[in-house]
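Lab meeting, item 3. Inverse folding demo.
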């Protein structure tokens, strides 16, 4: 992540941190797959899930960010403006914190990858099933938003189609659900309950720190009243229902 910060400094675009944050999880999974002493089938199940999800999200972000590589995303530009003259120093620290979060969030993977039991438990099958639902839901939400933005007629408008008709952040919801699935998967291993730290951290980050607050502030700055009306009729997070007017 130090190297990624150097790259971002050179190109003046901190958005690349999101790409490498996502790709770091497949790197961790591959290391565990090769070095961890756990039951092979379990390792292949878990690491396969992590690699697929990380590559999908990282590639999705890379496609979006690389199209405007020399134009920093507004939310990072706004953060840089708020930090003022100390922006680059703080940004370097922010990148390191992202790397630390990669390790903390990987606790379910560490717990699972050292489990030598040769029986796959109901927790692991349940976690894998929930993972499939969550990664599919996130991919659908990302695709719907990308398709909406691609249509020039929608410039300046709020995406309220598909899953976005029910939740302002269905992609974030399914991202969190995916970490819940890793926690459930880890319950099949000794001390698996410790893995609750991962979905708890993700939920906090999404609801209070770098996820929803920053995204909604940027939407209010760029879309104004249209986004305020959207806020009044949709769930902020869970896409199970649509508010009535």
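The presenter then showed the designed sequence:
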């Amino acid at each position: 992540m130090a190297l990624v910060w150097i790259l971002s400094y050179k190109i003046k675009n901190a958005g690349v941190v999101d790409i490498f944050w996502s790709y770091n999880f497949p790197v961790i999974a591959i290391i565990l797959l090769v070095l961890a002493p756990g039951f092979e089938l379990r390792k292949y199940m878990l690491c396969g899930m992590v690699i697929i999800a990380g590559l999908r999200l990282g590639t999705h972000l890379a496609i979006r960010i690389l199209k405007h590589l020399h134009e920093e995303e507004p939310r990072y530009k706004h953060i840089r403006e708020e930090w003022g003259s100390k922006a680059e120093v703080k940004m370097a620290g922010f990148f390191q914190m992202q790397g630390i979060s990669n390790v903390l969030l990987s606790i379910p993977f560490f717990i699972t990858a050292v489990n030598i039991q040769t029986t796959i438990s109901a927790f692991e099958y349940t976690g894998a099933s929930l993972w499939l639902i969550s990664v599919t839901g996130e991919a659908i939400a990302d695709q719907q938003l990308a398709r909406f933005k691609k249509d020039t007629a929608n410039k300046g408008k709020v995406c309220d189609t598909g899953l976005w008709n029910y939740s302002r952040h269905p992609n974030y919801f399914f991202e969190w659900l995916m970490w819940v699935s890793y926690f459930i998967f880890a319950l099949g291993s000794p001390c698996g309950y410790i893995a609750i730290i991962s979905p708890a951290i993700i939920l906090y980050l999404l609801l209070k720190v770098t996820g929803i607050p920053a995204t909604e502030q940027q939407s209010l700055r760029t879309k104004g009243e249209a986004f305020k009306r959207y806020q009044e009729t949709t769930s902020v997070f869970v896409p199970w229902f649509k508010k009535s007017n």
